[in-house]
Design brief:
Elements (H helix, E strand, L loop, with lengths): L3 E8 L17 H8 L1 E4 L2 E2 L5 H10 L3 H4 L15 H7 L4 E6 L13 E6 L31 E2 L3 H19 L8 E9 L4 E2 L1 H4 L22 H8 L10 H31 L6 E7 L18 H4 E2 L1 E4 L6 E3 L3 E2 H11 L11 H6 L8 E5 L8 E6 L2 E6 L5 E4 L17 H14 L2 H18 L3 H4 L14
Parallel strand pairs: 1-7, 1-9, 2-12, 3-13, 4-5, 4-7, 6-8
Antiparallel strand pairs: 2-11, 3-10, 9-11, 14-15, 15-16, 16-17
Helix pairs in contact: 1-8, 2-10, 4-10, 5-8
Amino acid sequence: MSSNLLVILSDEHQARAMGCAGHPFVQTPNLDALAGRGMRFTDAYTPSPICVPARASFATGRHVHQTRLWDNAMPYTGQIPGWGHCLQNAGVPVESIGKLHYRQNGDPAGFDQEHIPMHVVGGNGMVWGSIRAESERVSPPTRMLGEYIGAGTSKYTEYDKAVTDRTVTWLSDHAKDEKPWCLYVGLVAPHFPLVVPQEFFDLYPPDSLPAPKMNPKDGYVRHPWVELQNAQMESESNFKSAAERRDAVAAYFGLVSWLDHNVGRLMQALQDNGLTNETTVIYSSDHGDNVGARGLWGKSNFYQESVAVPMIMAGPDIPVGTCDTPVDLLDIAATIPDHFDLDFESEGMPLPQIVSDEPDLGRVILSQYHAVGAVSGGYMLRKGRWKLNFYVGFDSELFDLIDDPEEANNLAADPAFAEVVRDLTAALHAKVDPEAANTQAFADQAALIESYGGREAALKLGAPGATPPPAT
């Protein structure tokens, strides 16, 4: 008989920002304890470094160019069958609590019940971000990171507390269920606004934190595609002072510890209800955050800070240790039905199978970005020690993640690595036609804008920045 399955997905959690991942100062005792009794995947990635496309791929087990849900104005509606539908069709109880970032309540998105779900604004999301041509795009009307940065509470921290409270109650209510269940829990921390309760902010005295790496002020030159992408939502120059910038770093890591605190409450609820040994837990995030590296904030690019995610699986029959085979959120999509012995067509592979096989360090992982700020489609291909960042119409980047884990040395133009670039570019084309997907994305986005009555009408729709949470 399969165990219960609890899937926890946070928002914007950098892969390295856990003690168990070797981070030098972040405090994540509960995630560390979860990893200590299960399997931590050391090289996990998002299929797209922005919320809505990543979550649609997570729901369906399909790549972004397959879902054609390219950006934050193209939310999942249930139109493509996902793992939730697979469970429902088999009679497995499946519910959600918290952030989904799908279209709207009432869509057949694969849950028997959605508790306090957070969806895109108005059912249409961040429409202005779909206007990507450099000559036409607009900047957000508000500062993306939030008007205030520092200690305190926000609608997001209040929402995470409500989601955690509801989950604790749900676990108590379902402790005696006879049928194994699947519960998805969506937390928003450490997503901006960068506001966190005082006790968590105080864990990271701003003056004690290292300065983020590779600041353009110190001579670092950003890749031209990244420079253009960031220009639409520039955050670095919008800090009111150097002190506020330091507070932003402290608040981000404080939010990671706030997230960890809420995960701890969920693990305690499993324990209190006698469910720990009957429940498999998967923890991951939809994407990371640059947190000032290269002068960048938020996500939306392919450097490790943005595109890599934490991933932990623990529970009955899950071995303890680390797995170095590269994985992504599509593998979680494959894992969920497999956990209940169900067949599900996915581009991913069940995580227990990946763990039981010999390490496959050459496994190919794809991520892609066709959303706000991108003047052309961008793609990441991870294979072995190498990472290729491929930008339509721009030069690629190549990084050796063994010798250069900080991605400081772009090798793409070095003749000594021309064969590596050719091999990775061929592997990318085996996964996706980057030019064709780029063309399709622009065509789909143009059709979306036209469906709203054109550019001026579309600009009046959706959220200017971070999606507001629902009333709780």
